[in-house]
Structures are given as C-alpha cells and as structure tokens.
What does this fold into?
Amino acid sequence: MEKKTFQLFHSDVEPLTQWQNLGEADFAPATEQEKVSMVEEHKSVSYWKDAWRRFRANRVSMVSLFVFILLLLFAFVGPSFIAYSYEEQYREAAKLFPFEKTEAQEAAEALLAEGADGVLVTNLLPGSQTYLKKGNYYITARNGKTIAFNLPKSKEKIILVLESEKTPALWYVDQKAYLSGTYEKTEIETTDAPAENAAELKLTTSFFPHIFGTDSAGRDLLARCMYGTRVSLIIGIVAALIVLVIGSIYGAISGLAGGAVDFVMMRIVELIYSVPDVLIVLLLQVVLKEPLQKWFDASQGGIVKAMSDLGVGVVSIFITFALLYWVGMARIVRGQVLMLKKQEYVTAARALGVPGGRIVKRHLIPNCVGQLVITTCLQIPSAIFLESFLSFLGMGVSAPMASLGSLCSDALDVLQNYPYRMLCPAIILTILVLSLNLVGDGIRDALDPRLKK
Amino acid sequence: MTLYVLKRIVAAFFTLVLIATITFFLMNAIPGSPFMTDKSTPEQIAKANAKYGLDQPLPVQWWRYMTNYLRGDMGVSLKMQEGTEVTKILFGQGKFELSIRVGLWALLLAIVLGIPLGCIAAYNRGKAVDSVLRVLTTFGVAVPSFVFATLLLLIFAVHLKWLPVLSNSLETPASYVMPVLSLALYPSCYIAKLTRTSMLDAINQDYIRTARAKGLKTRRIIFKHALRNSLIPVITYLGPLAASIVTGGFVVETTFSIPGLGKYFISSILNRDYPVIMGTTVVLAALIVIMNLVVDIAYKIVDPRITLTAKED
It folds into this structure.
C-alpha cells in the first residue's frame, strides 16, 4: 500500500528504487557529450531583457510606442521639413484655412506658371513689413549669375519677377493690378556687380502650403503645433524627472530612517497631499511670474539662459511640480523601501556586516528601479495634462511660445469660425496623452507583472 | 469610532487652516498692490491700503483673516465688486449655487454611468463588449476635459445647433447638457475602470464560489454579491472625484461661459482681489476637504474589515 502511493506521486524516482538491478555500465563516467546533454539550456535573461520581451508581446503598448515615436519625430524633426517657423508672422496670410492660399500667392503662382524663374512677393515676407525697402539688392540667378539692382523708392505690395533668359530679366508688377488682369511690367535696370552694401534677396520658386492653416497673427499652425508638441513633451519629461528626484530622495530618506524622522516626514507628505493642488497651482502661476522674470533679466548664467528661453510660464510649472507633486512618488518609494528592508536577503546582508551604503546600492536601488520607472512614465502624461489645463485657462505658456494647451486656448474665441484651429492641437494632445498613458501601462505590466490589472 | 471621527475632523480643520495660510502668503507674494493702476498715485494707493488694513504687518493681517473666518466674515471685495461682502458675492449672487448644480449633476451622472458600465465590462470579460468599453474608458481618461468640452460645443452647438452655445446661468435644461457631460466624462470613465477591476477581484473571492455552488444565477451573483463589495474602492475615489469636479469646473465654466465659482476664482486671481481669492479658495478647499472627510468615515463604516482604531498607513 505504502509503496503504491509512493509510486503514484514520484513515478520518475522509480528507477532509483530498483538500485539492485543496476549494471556495471551504469557506473561508467559520462562522456563529454552526455554531460552537455544533461545540462538544461537556461540562458540567463536579464530583468530588462525579460521586461522588453513582455513589452513587445503586448500589442497595444507596441502600437502606442510607435505612435509616440511618430509624435517625437513630428515635434523634433518635423520643423526642419516645413518652410515656416512657429513665431514668424505672415501678415497677409492670417486666418487661412488648411491649404488655403492667399491672393498674393495665387498671383505669384500664376506668374511662375507663365515661365518666371523666381518671384518675390513683398507681402508674403515674414514680419509686419509688406514692402521692399529702398536700397541695393542682388539676386543669385539659377544659372549662377549675379543680378544686382538698386531700388530708388520702397515699393509696397509688389511681385518681383525674375526671368533670366528673357528681357527684361527683372521686373515687378503691382499685385492688385495683376489680379485685376490689367497689369504692366515695370522694368528694373540690373548690373552684374552688386553694390557694397547690397542685401541678398532669395526668390521663391514654389510656395509651401499652410497645411493646418494659420492663426490670427498669420503664424503657420502646423509649425506651431510641432513646436507646441515639443514644449509639452519637454514640460512633461522635465516635470517627471523633477518629481522623480525629489520624491525618491525624500521617500528613501523617510523609509530608511524610520522612527520619529519617518513619522514627521510622512505627516508633512500627508499635509501636502490633502491640499487641493489645483487651487494652489493657479495661485503659484500668478505669484511666480514676476519674480522669475526679474531673476531672468538680472542674472546671466548658462542654466538661467536656458530657463529664460523656455519662458516664465514653463519654469513656474516646473517649480509647481517641485513643490507639490512629488508627494505621490515619495509615498511609493517609502513603501518600497520599507518592504525591501524587511526582506531576508537584506537581513542576511546586514548580518554579514555589509555597510548600509552598499545595501542601498546593491539591494534597495535595483529592486526599486522598476517601480520608479513606472511611476515616472505615468507622471509624464499627467504633467502634460496639467500644463495644458493651465495654458487653457491662460496661465501657462504665453505667446509667441506655444504649447498644445495654449494653442487650444487661443482657438477658443474663434471656435465658431475656425474650428480646425482647435481641432489640430486638441487631437495631437489627445493622441500624445493617450499614447503615453498606454506606453506607461505597458511598461508597468512589463516591469512588474504582479501589478497587472 | 467617535474618537476616530473627532480626530479626522480636527485634521480636516487644520488642513483648511493650512490652505488658508498658504493662500494668504502666496497672494501677498503677488507683486504689486491690488490698487495699482496706470493712473493711481502712491498717495492714493497708501490711502486705499490703509482703508482695507493692507498697511499692517502680514502676521497681523493673517490673524485678522483667521479670526474673521471663524466668525463667518470673509471681508469685502477690494476690486471686482468693490465694497461688496465676499460671502455675498460667493453665495448671494448664485455663483456657488451654479457651480454646485453643475457639479452635483456631473457627480450623479459619473456614478450612474460609471458603475453599471464597469459591471457590464466585468460581466462580459474578454468579450467584444469588454474591449469596446475598455477602449472608450481609456479614451475618456486621456482626453483633456477642455478638448471634450469644445468638441461638444463644436458639434452640438455650432454645427447641429441643438444646444445653446453659451450656457450662461443654466436657465434651460438644454444648457445643462454639455457642461455636465464634459464634467462627468473623466470621472465616469475612471469609475468604470475602477469598478471593473475591483469587480474582477471580488469574483475570485470564496463567497462568490459559495454563491455559485448554491446554484445562484450569474447575473444575481455579479450584481448583488460581487457589486456590494467591489464598490469600496469606488467610495474611496469619491474624495478625489470631488476635487476633479472642482478642477474641471474651472475649464467647463470658462468654455461655456457659466458665471460660476470657478470662473470667478480665476478672474479674482488675475485681478488680485485678495479677499475674493481667499474666500473662493477656502470655500472650494472646504468642499474638497469635507468630501474627503465624509469618504474616510464612510469607508470605515462600509468595510468593517478595516479596524477603526488602527493607524492608517
């Protein structure tokens, strides 16, 4: 009876119980080949490799990672593919619908179609100027020849046309007259040698479309959306890093120290936690603006320069995060440290006399990293969310700087007539937040499968 | 229990004092005086400061604010409606009522929509319905409220012209639709996600197996036995929910031009009307803090497994 149960549960052990039957051959040393085949192949897989494998298996997070990378390209590489910058104003081209052309552009395109080498439309130049100032200019034609000329009087709203193969080679036409159909070419005398103070003029051979249209100040919306995405991303990432640094240091100290220190530190966290953040954030935005501006104007360090480039609104968002939003991170890190402190391997290390710093470095940090990465990743979309919220209420980023939130806010007043101005940044913002959230969820599931919901 | 409740009330009170203090010092850190305009002379500013006691040292001003608040006196507006009592501005002109009306409807909608959706998703786990709901709720959590609000505005007010563009004072039922919907979007999706997760947790419990062994119908098990216990995490979310509705109120009131508390708060900050900033902050913060307090107490009543005297961690 007893033997039967034994066999039932340990059937693979059975040959050993028949040890009496072993022959002499069974005691021969194993050959090299046999030895190799006995070792089971277990390639050691590192934590990160394992996580990456799990992440790749998750289709939703892979797709959102792809979308996120596309958005990164859109924000950081995209601007070099379009002809407009986020802050240049094209006065004549204000309030255009997507792909809509101005009259001046249509006229110029007609001239180009008639065989002009290049044109210059004075009122499609960036800035508020719609005229060509008097003075000396030169143009480098397509065949390499330099064509220089002098403009004795400034000319408003003209189209300058170069036809290098014909005579007259250089002439201009009044834009209004051309559009009404009755135009006459006004010839400009040219020379080969430019005068000393001559300015170079670049002629246009084709017009880059305003793909998303333009805003009320004549700024290209696509360029602004790209720039806004970049600003929003930078804000999200920097804010998450700030939270990571402050939160994890605070939480780690609190968890490691324990006792009275821990108690006091956690009461502080609880207090900050219970403060309704948005009320204080709104106040902070207004409070910080002027002192920051003063500080930026007064000092000239490398970091201060970089910060003043970002603008007061953005920096005050960072400060807000540094002041209020680290508490969640601190709680998580403290919880992790407390849990890890009680693990047997830490006790063992301590019993072996390993110094505290080494325990932190070898045991606590590597085991916390997953949780830190997860929390930081999920912090990015929430920072972007908060920034867009503030900018929407008119308290974050201010023009000519753009963030996705401020673009939406600018578009709110003209929503009825120009809905696309709201739609473009709003859709980008939604996709950005959504993809980051899904990537964050994927990273959480990959790094810590226990948390999977 | 009584001790616990008392302790929580005292803590909530101190939180409010802290918030009022932070607000007080923050708004005094805003550069410039509320009376500074292009035309005003230093003498005029000094006179106005003296009139409203702004020339006294900060701690004295702070103490005056605190003691007056305990008496229910929130001071008078310095700028936006000069001389009017703040309590009258907030409560007497319908601002608070407007915000509360929209907020409560949104709260109700979020609960009424979120919990059943979560149950349905859990009930159909892994099926098409679950996937559709998951996509919808994920979107709902990711879409910023102002984007959703303006989309609604664009579609239903501008294009289809079914609903009014400006909600103003919410005189007609139609003017409620968009503000309430956009305010309820995030919380209802969040609640749906939360309910689904906790419902799935509850389904794996022993008592569900017992109910199943007794031969009860799945529907009855889910909606009676599992639902009751999976509502506990939803209750804990009601605190943050109140905060999110207050926050969302700022955006919604701006978008639909509702003259409520949120809109007024933002213009009071921009106008540096100290007593109004203080008053609005304290009222809104009190809403959130009291909601948290109620939730904390309700939580312990609903779930007896949590010992009342144990210190929370």
User: Anything to note?
Assistant: Chain B has two domains: 2-88, 93-302. The radius of gyration of chain B is 24 Å. Chain B has twelve helices and no strands.
